[in-house]
Design a protein that fits this description.
- This is Leucyl/phenylalanyl-tRNA--protein transferase.
- Keywords: Acyltransferase, Cytoplasm, Transferase.
- By secondary structure, this protein is α+β, with helices and mostly antiparallel strands.
- It contains seven helices and twelve strands.
- It is 29% helix and 24% strand.
- A hairpin with an 8-residue loop joins strand 3 and strand 4.
- Helix 3 (95-103) runs antiparallel to helix 4 (114-125).
- It starts with a strand and ends in a 12-residue tail after the last strand.
- Mean pLDDT is 92; it is low at 233-241.
Amino acid sequence: MRIVKLSPQSVAFPSPEAALRDPNGLLAIGGDLTPSRLLAAYERGIFPWYSPGEAILWWSPDPRAVMFPNEYHTSRSLKRFLRSAPFRITLNHDFAAVISACAQRPDEGTWIGEEVQRAYLQLHRMGYAHSVEVWRGEELVGGLYGVAQGALFCGESMFSRTTNASKCALMAFCHHFASYGGELIDCQVLNAHTARLGARDIPRHQFLQLLSNLQRKVLAPGCWLPQVVPPQLVEPPSPTN
């Protein structure tokens, strides 16, 4: 197998199954971050990840990290934390601020450069990319962003400037997304943080099959409208005698 160099005249991608095993998932190089190319990539389970100033690299790893919204793990300590109602959580209130904050995460390096931020902000303005914001008063203290594909959400990055902010962002989003018909969140590559929250690996071929099925589904109206999102999962009602 070899890395495919993308043509500037076409937004076509090679099959994800042609990706390298080492480094895991590297599929293609080059191209650009125009909306048409980015959307063509996400439709095939491919995403960009590269260092600013270098050629764009496109990936489709095997296995693929995913989270089923109803499998989000809420620890006892997080439940206790939420009782104090420390945050206000919103959807699509400040995408630009969220992606800028994600770019400043020390553990993420500098891969979310200005070119990436401009590209995803354009997708947001077109209605494809979305953000969750966590506020403490008027201060933005956490959040996440990603790209919608029907009933599947392709998570790109999250950040936290205070304890539990990113956990609460993801928890609130899982509940909101599922309540509108969302069924799967793409976490790309499993890490310790997302694994603790309930993400797990599945084979790439299974992910691609799920993607093909879920991207055809339409969410209930109003899912992506700017709104306040409940900060905690709704507990099931107690049984009555």
